[in-house]
Structures are given as structure tokens and as C-alpha cells.
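Consider today's protein:

***
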Amino acid sequence: MSLYSEYLAEIETRKTELGLNPKPIDSADLLSEIIAQIKDTTNEHREDSLKFFIYNTLPGTTPAAGVKAQFLKEIVLGEEKVEEITPEFALELLSHMKGGPSVEALLDLALSDDEAVAKPAAEVLKTQVYLYEADTERLETAFKAGNAIAKDVLESYAKAEFFTKLPEVPEKIEVVTYIAAEGDISTDLLSPGNQAHSRADRELHGQCMISPEAQQEIVELGKKHPNAKVMLIAEKGTMGVGSSRMSGVNNVALWAGEPTSPYIPFVNKAPIVAGTNGIAPIFLTTVDVTGGIGLDLKNWVKKTDENGEVVRDANGDPVLEEAYSVATGTVLTIDTKAKKLYNGSQELADVSASFTPQKMEFMKAGGSYAVVFGKQLQSFAARTLGVKAPAVYAASKEVSHEGQGLTAVEKIFNRNAVGVNSDAPLHAGSDVRVKVNIVGSQDTTGPMTCQELESMAASTISPTVDGAYQSGCHTASVWDKKAQANIPKLMSFMNNFGVITARDPKGVYHSMTDVIHKVLNDITVDDRAIIIGGDSHTRMSKGVAFGADSGTVALALATGEAAMPIPESVKVTFKGKMKEHMDFRDVVHATQAQMLKQFSGENVFQGRVIEVQIGTLLADQAFTFTDWSAEMKAKASICISNDETMIASLELAKSRIQIMIDKGMDNEANMLQGLIDLADKRIAEIKSGEEPALAPDDNAKYYAEVVIDLDQIDEPMIADPDVNNEDVSKRYTHDVIRPVSYYDGKPVDLGFVGSCMVHKGDMQIIAQMLRNLEKLNGSVEFKAPLVVAPPTYNIVDELKAEGDWEVLAKYAGFEFDDAQPKEAARTKYDNILYLERPGCNLCMGNQEKAEPGDTVIATSTRLFQGRVVADSAEKKGESLLGSTPLVVLSTVLGRFPTTEEYKQAVAGIDLTKFAPPSEDLAVKPKFEADVAVKRV
């Protein structure tokens, strides 16, 4: 059976079973067969083959793209003749293929001796921006050899004509509103975690956005208002909270965006999204990737009385009133010049933050990638020609306040900034390019990252990236057919690209399913590093880490850079003393609760960097705070530690990296060994006093300062989804923090200890609680199931060596076996302890789930509707979040414990201790010149 026959069979299956179009082609062998049928003018499949070749072949560096580019080049040269594809049309098709083989073909043509071929090919080449070193070297060599065409192309690049000749962003954009949901909209609504396996198949994945009914309503709105774009809205909430999903934006663009190219199937751009409280920071970055628009509507405001005081409801929350309506079907106008939102002639809101010069460039260029590559290409051309590049792009926004110190994040950005004109230190609000030190890709967004790398024609990791890791944690709990099909391909691609991979395509080392954030925390070996990871919980306790979409991860891997504004910071310090029976997780939850109380319900963390003075808490434990900062809606978080703690954390990182090396995980470039060398260098700097541990200046300026009183924390604190709140917009927000006494014996159906929020100490706590209960009662019986998933294999190995794993295994009714991993997700649970494979497990929501309608108490990070537990017909599922000891005791009792029961259960157990620094860790500012010297 031919590949084409198999493809036809797949097409029929997709059409009849799923109602889908043919899957885009990425196979070189299949496209070669199709090309053979095109050449055979009598072939019965020739007409369809032409359509597949022209309209349904993936561009970039896919294997199929190489075959397509070669055939198009042969047509341009006259070596092949196809009536339907003229040489002119062949060049047009090459222009839409986005780089890699197509740029190679265009260079072959433009630098050829045949002027009739070279000139038109050069005109197409001038429109391309995805050129890499091999491409630019060819142009430079030809130019130095006196090639006139090469000189002409370089002159065009130096003027950035690939950008300046693009159409301007329309001054007026009509939109028609669509309320996607009320309250915060999680990216789970736009791209559900349980559909992660299909993300790389864009048309198929698009079927899971919101609901089929919503998709049809969006289509009908578009038909009814053909001159308007449908704008998806989070009414009385924030759009895109929770995760960093490119797939969510892709889905919105698929239903409400516009095609990127007539020759690239199901890749759309320029969606418009909005929220009463704006767009979540990570999601907004993803919108920029597609050249879209994200609006902060502010259409609900706090109600005030005649004295100007905020009116509050029975719970003490501010009462909101509608400033203007955005009900579904409302036609509005975005004025991109005035930067205002209008309903007819009535001005509704100032939206200038959505139309900065940089964002306007993204919209004009069709996305942020094209701007990043365009700037690099312009600089290269000007340098090669020996001319000064004209100011085409908006200058980097460089904000500097004389005499003002630097926050920790400002120091990190100053150290890593590239292409900065000023010698003065940069402050928040500056918009700069920065070197990215560490990059992480996770396994359910990884296939999309591969697609993005292919589409931008990248073939190898940037040499400036210090470390990069591809995880296997999001598909760890169930090794089903979907995972078996997707993950080996992902690991092979990333391994070849130069990334350290959890699974070894060559089978040398044991497959690792360690939680990505834990690995990234281990391989971050500099407290001044910038980390980009394909997950919202990329929040390291060393350096500053930003969760990002799969596209931004791809860009960081390919270029070693990212572009973003320097964010504002909020300073968090602690006072008082942590009580013996409290866990650090309780401090984390109390931080959120006390902050909201201090600022009358305003979340001052949202969109900003939290700089928390951890002091003496090691990186593993401090990560519990930074990890949760995603749920605080912060853009990132930085732990300020003293010198001794930072050195100890770096030594721990070194030992973990060495274990990876010993397992055989290092690559040909010795990336992991390079990280150990960098850690040694940083430790030496701290010990010598040359560069102490990162700390802000004592005259730095913060958006707000929050002081957390540890004395107030006397009960385990629980983050509650508040599923029955009468105000729908206040459900599933992570902002409702309650003490355990509130629940007063509430039944518990399932407990989960795992995900990135736990560390080795949590596993030790479980073992000690089991020992205590065994000593007290003679044995341990669970009245509710307890699922335990250690975050890493290192932890499992250490627990086995120290004897704690033996205790866990003794009471486990199920223990994972890597030789025979589960091939199907569990749907029912017994009242036993389940020792699961390291990884995300229930927290991810794409494989294991609690039974519908369950009340779950978990250490995880997600309490969104349907994530950990779905609703049943009788009852809403609820995922309440708390500390490890609280989860364990609740499953033993089958209900929430009283405070006294809890205190008794943890008596004598060494919980995660935290003592705040005795003094402020801020330092006296150094000379401004010191900052500039250390810039990249």
C-alpha cells in the first residue's frame, strides 16, 4: 500500500469520524509520492495532489518543506514544468515557506549566474526574515566576492524593507464582542489539558475550545458582522490565567483570527481577546507572538458611596458596578491611533497599554518572531555593508531614574540586556532584549515548540543558551497510545536540536519523568539568570523565571534571547515567628490572603514580580513560594537569599546535575558539565565577595511593599475554589484562602500529594506521619484514597537509601513500576495509598483525575473547574489546596481534621521550617557604571 493510499484512508477517517479536513503534510516521503503524481499528467490523483502540494504542506524545516522547496526551485530553473505552477507562482510559494529549505533555495536562485532567475528570486528573498548563520554567511561571502545581487539584497535588509513595506496596522478596527465566560478564564477553557495530545494537530485541537456551541456562536457572529473581528472576553475576570498555552491562543485565532497565509493550513494570526481585568501576563505574551491584540477593558469598577468609600458585600469584598456593557454581540471600535475603545462616538476606555510602539510592530509584522529576526537581520546587513542601520523599529524603551536604586529584577535585566544604547542603569518600564540563560520545554506543549522551531527554520540550539531541558512529566502517569506516539518523536527532535531530554532516543539512560520545574530549578546555577519555560510554573527560586508559550520557548532556544519590558516589583518581607505546627505551604497561602486584606482586595502581585526575602530557606523549599506565585497572578518571583544559603543551594544544584551526568544524560556539547562549571564560578564569586548573592538596593522603588505577619498563622490554610459562590466570577480564582476550622469535619473523597509544589521534605513528612499513626494505632487505615507522586527520581532514590521509601511502600496498595507503566488512566480509587511515578499526575488534568464530583484536598497548584476533578450530575467537583500533612491526615480520617487533631498528628515532625531574615537583605547601591559593565 502506497503512502498516498494510506493518506487517503486517513483523510476519509478524519472526514467521517471527526468532520475534519486532510491533516497537513510533514512527511518527505509522502510529498515525494505526491510530486511524482503531479509530474504524471495522466495520474488520476494529479488534481488532488496539486492541491495537497500547494495548500496542505507544512512550511519551515519540516521534512516535507525540504522536498517542496527543491521541486519549486527546479520549476523556477525550468528543470521541471508544471502547467499549474509557473516559475512566478513557484517563487510566490517559496516566499510563504518561512525559511530553512526555502531560503536555501532562494539563495541558490538569487546567487546564480542566470540574471533572469536571480533578479526575481532576489526580490522574494528581500521579503524573508528567517535567515540563520549559514544563510547570512552565504550572502556575506557573495557580497565580498563582488556579487551585485547580494549587495542589493543586503542593502534592502539594512533598510529593513521586509518590515517597512508591510501594510500599516489599520487605524480603526471593528470588533464584535463574545463573552467566553464570566470570571477568570483559565487557558483550560481555551485548550483543555485532557486534550493535550492533539495540540500539534491544529484543526483537531480547535474542536476542544470552550464548547461546540460556543464555536458555532463565534462563527455566526462573524457571518453576521463580516466587517468586524470577534473579540473573546473574560467578563468580570482576567483572560488566560493559569497556563502558558500557545494552543489556547491558536484556538482563539483559529475561530476568530485570520489566516497567516493561503498556503499554510490552519495557522491563523491576530486574534483579539479582552478581559475586565485585562490579560494574564504569560497569555498576553502569547497573543503578541501571533500579532494579536489584548485589551484591558476595566468595564466593571468598584462601587462607592456618597462619601467616596468603597461599598462592600457581606463577605467584605468590594461591590462592582458596570461602567459599560460588552454583552455578546456588541459592536465596538478600536482606534489604534487614538488608542481608545469606542461604542459609536462614545469613548469607553483608554487602551494605550495595548498599542505601545513595540506591540504595534508585532501587529504590523504578523507576530513578535518576525520583529526579533528582522532586527537581527537588519543589524547583520548594516554591519556587513559598513553602514549605519536607519532607525526603522521603535527604539528600545530605556527608562532610567537618576539616584534611584535597582530592584532585584532590574539588576538581572541590566546584567543580561543586549543592544542597549544607554550606559545608565535601566528601571522598570524599559523594554529590552535580554540573554536567556536556561530554557525548558514540557511534553504536552513540546510538540508545538517543535512545530514553532520548524516554522522559524531553526535546526540547532543557540550556542549562547547555558542549559535547556525537555521534560516528560506531563505525560508521566499514563503511558497510553497517545503518549507512545507523541513523546518519542518529541524527545528525538529535541535531542537532535541540542536539548537535554528526559528520555534518551538511543536508550542509554532510564526514562526520566521528573517534574520540569524541579529540573529547571536544579539546572539554574546563577541567581542572576533569566529562565524561560513552557509552563506557567516556571518560577525558579534562583534567578528570575518566566513561564512562556511554546513559541516563546522556541524563540529562546533558537536565538538565546527574549524581548520584554522590565516589570515592576512588589517587595515581600516577613515578621513574627512561624509556629511549630505550621508548614511553609501555610505561609505561602497566608501571604496571598494577607496581601489582599492589606490592599482592600486589590491584587498588587498581578502582572508584577514578587521579590520575597526568603533568607535562609534552601532552593528546594523556597521553590514552594515562587511556584505558587503563578496562582497569585504574578509575572514572576525572585527569592532574595543570604550568601550562605545561595552557596548551599548551588552546591545542591551541582550534585543534582552530576547525577544527571552519571546517568548518561549529558550531550555532545557537554551542556550539563558546563552548568557545573558555571556553578563553581558563581560560588567562587560569592565566597570571595566579588559578587555577593543577588539583593536589591535599599533605595530601590517598588510598586508596593507587603509585610506578612507569621504570628497570625495558627491553622493550616486552604486555597478554596469556592465552587458554590453566588457570584460566578469569584469561583476558581485561587484568592479564597480559609483556615481549616472553616471546614469543620467536611468529608474528603481523595487526597493528592505531588506536583511541583512538594519537595523531598514532603515525602519525609508522609513517612513520619505513617510511623506516628502506626505507633499510636498499631496500623494505618485510609478512609479516603491518597495519591502520592514524588516530583523526581532523585528524591525516590534518596528516600530509598534513607529508609523512608520502605515506610511508604509498606502502606501502598499500588507502587509504580517503570517496567510496566500504566497504559490507561485510573477512573476509580480504593481507600489505599497509591505510590505513583514521579511527575505531575493529577495536577495536570490530562491523564489521571479524581472521580467526578469528588472533594479533593491536594498539594497541587490547580483548582480550576474540571482540572483535577470534574463535576458530576449531583455535585460540583472541588479541588481544595493545602499542605502535605493536612492532606495525609484528611485521607486517614476521611474528612478535614480539627485544629487540635492536626496539631497532635504533626507533633514531633520536622515540618518545613522558616525563620525570616533578622534584617532587611537590601544592600547599598553600587556605582551606576558597574551595571553597564556587566551587560551582555
The first strand starts at residue 172 and ends at 182. The domain at 716-906 is CATH 3.30.499.10 (Aconitase; domain 3).
